Protein backbone atom coordinates (compact mmCIF):
# COMPACT_ATOMS: atom_id res chain seq x y z
CA UNK A 1 0.00 0.00 0.00
CA UNK A 2 1.33 3.41 -0.94
CA UNK A 3 0.63 6.70 0.80
CA UNK A 4 -0.56 9.70 -1.13
CA UNK A 5 2.21 12.29 -0.89
CA UNK A 6 -0.20 15.16 -1.52
CA UNK A 7 -2.80 13.83 0.92
CA UNK A 8 -0.29 13.24 3.68
CA UNK A 9 1.26 16.68 3.16
CA UNK A 10 -2.14 18.40 3.36
CA UNK A 11 -3.20 16.37 6.39
CA UNK A 12 -0.07 17.14 8.40
CA UNK A 13 -0.15 20.80 7.32
CA UNK A 14 -3.72 21.20 8.60
CA UNK A 15 -2.91 19.28 11.79
CA UNK A 16 0.23 21.30 12.61
CA UNK A 17 -1.18 24.66 11.54
CA UNK A 18 -4.51 24.08 13.21
CA UNK A 19 -3.00 22.99 16.49
CA UNK A 20 -0.72 26.04 16.65
CA UNK A 21 -3.53 28.41 15.68
CA UNK A 22 -5.98 26.99 18.24
CA UNK A 23 -3.34 26.99 20.96
CA UNK A 24 -2.46 30.63 20.19
CA UNK A 25 -6.16 31.54 20.15
CA UNK A 26 -6.89 29.83 23.47
CA UNK A 27 -3.74 31.35 24.95
CA UNK A 28 -5.06 34.78 24.02
CA UNK A 29 -8.12 34.27 26.24
CA UNK A 30 -6.53 32.04 28.92
CA UNK A 31 -2.87 33.19 29.11
CA UNK A 32 -1.34 30.15 30.81
CA UNK A 33 -2.90 27.74 28.26
CA UNK A 34 -0.31 26.13 25.97
CA UNK A 35 2.46 28.46 27.06
CA UNK A 36 5.19 25.80 26.91
CA UNK A 37 4.07 24.69 23.42
CA UNK A 38 4.05 28.27 22.14
CA UNK A 39 7.51 28.93 23.60
CA UNK A 40 8.77 25.78 21.87
CA UNK A 41 7.23 26.92 18.58
CA UNK A 42 8.81 30.36 18.97
CA UNK A 43 12.22 28.70 19.27
CA UNK A 44 11.59 26.80 16.01
CA UNK A 45 9.95 29.46 13.85
CA UNK A 46 11.80 32.78 13.40
CA UNK A 47 9.53 35.79 13.73
CA UNK A 48 6.96 33.97 15.84
CA UNK A 49 6.55 35.17 19.41
CA UNK A 50 3.54 34.17 21.53
CA UNK A 51 1.26 36.98 22.54
CA UNK A 52 -1.01 38.41 19.88
CA UNK A 53 -3.15 37.17 17.05
CA UNK A 54 -0.82 38.66 14.41
CA UNK A 55 2.00 36.55 15.80
CA UNK A 56 -0.37 33.58 15.99
CA UNK A 57 -1.08 33.86 12.28
CA UNK A 58 2.65 34.07 11.51
CA UNK A 59 3.21 30.93 13.57
CA UNK A 60 0.28 29.22 11.87
CA UNK A 61 1.76 29.91 8.44
CA UNK A 62 5.12 28.51 9.56
CA UNK A 63 3.41 25.43 11.00
CA UNK A 64 1.39 24.90 7.80
CA UNK A 65 4.57 24.97 5.72
CA UNK A 66 6.44 22.78 8.19
CA UNK A 67 3.63 20.23 8.30
CA UNK A 68 3.33 20.11 4.52
CA UNK A 69 7.05 19.57 3.98
CA UNK A 70 7.29 16.95 6.74
CA UNK A 71 4.17 15.18 5.51
CA UNK A 72 5.44 15.02 1.95
CA UNK A 73 8.83 13.73 3.10
CA UNK A 74 7.22 11.17 5.39
CA UNK A 75 5.01 9.77 2.61
CA UNK A 76 7.84 9.81 0.07
CA UNK A 77 10.21 7.94 2.40
CA UNK A 78 7.48 5.47 3.37
CA UNK A 79 6.67 4.78 -0.28
CA UNK A 80 10.36 4.31 -1.10
CA UNK A 81 10.93 1.87 1.74
CA UNK A 82 7.63 -0.04 1.59
CA UNK A 83 7.31 -0.04 -2.20
CA UNK A 84 8.90 -3.44 -2.73
CA UNK A 85 7.30 -5.08 0.31
CA UNK A 86 3.79 -5.07 -1.24
CA UNK A 87 4.38 -8.02 -3.57
CA UNK A 88 6.59 -10.00 -1.19
CA UNK A 89 3.75 -11.70 0.69
Q: For the terminal residues, how far apart are their CA atoms?
A: 12 Å
Rg, nearest Å: 16 Å
What would the principal axes of the Cα set say about the shape? Answer: elongated
Q: Which range best describes the helical content: under 10%, 10-25%, 25-40%, 40-55%, 55-70% or over 70%?
A: over 70%
Largest sheet: none
Topology as a string of helices (H) and strands (E): HHH
**Number of separate structural domains:** 1
Q: Which regions have little confidence, pLDDT < 50, spanning 5+ residues?
A: none
Q: Give the total of beta strands.
A: 0
Q: Counting H and I runs of at least 4 residues, what is the number of helices?
A: 3
Secondary structure category: mainly alpha
Mean pLDDT, to the nearest integer, reads 91
Which strand-content bin applies to the residues?
under 5%
